[in-house]
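Hey, resending since the last one bounced:
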Amino acid sequence: MSISLADARHGAQASRRLLVRTIRALEPFADSLTVVGAHAVHVWVQQQWGPIDMEATRDGDLVLNPVFIASTPKVVDLLAGIGLEAARPERPGIYGLRDEHDRAFGERVTVDLIVPEAFAGPGRRAARVDGQRNSLTRAHGLELAVYDRRLMRVSTLDDGRPDEVSVHVAGPAALIVAKTIKVSERFAQAVERPDRLRPKDSGDIALLMMTCDGATAAQVMRREAHAHREIHEVVDEAARAVVELYGERNSLVRDHMAESLSARFAAVDVVDAVDEWLASFESAYRG
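The structure tokens again:
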């Protein structure tokens, strides 16, 4: 079932409001926070093209660097103070509004608090952070966002006077790494779970490529991976995967790029921009 433009806009607005409220609530750990995911992509898209509607989303994503997280105050207490609760107790780190407790999970507005796998300690689901038991989740692919980020103003999407907050936002290189890892993993599982390989994810990668120079992204990846050896493996994995996935003509995920952005850009313009970015990126990354 397709979603209407009005419903998509409403969901994105509600999600951004919750993200801004969450950032404020976590002010004691402000240095640890970095916006990632769809909201971060939208911030860079707005930087490039000005005001533009955000794609449908009901969740916001924040990376937390455990180096800056003390054992008190408790994350769960800070979030409870703004009316949030664990939205999926079996998956730590995902929070939703208590007012939406009786809704199906897919209908709730949520925010994910994520520690990148390289910094999350031992375990399978919850990140291990002293004093913050079962309050944060973990994910592979977001490691570069700890270092490639910029302090920016992020505002709500409501009409009228927006509410805004100052917070670090992951840079295009970090977001391309994260999105590429996500698409690569889902592409490998496409036969068993075709529903998880969404055109929007590849569309986001294309948008990010259109907001930054490929050589610059490569330089950021190389510099940070060299300076922080704990992230070298995941950055290199993404650098190889982005060329393999999107450099192949007529590949499914490459078609997804043009399909996802068809309402905004001609397919030939998307393909040309992606090819130019990949050529610049590959040359610079190989050095």
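DSSP finds nine helices and eight strands in the chain.

Sorry for the duplicate.
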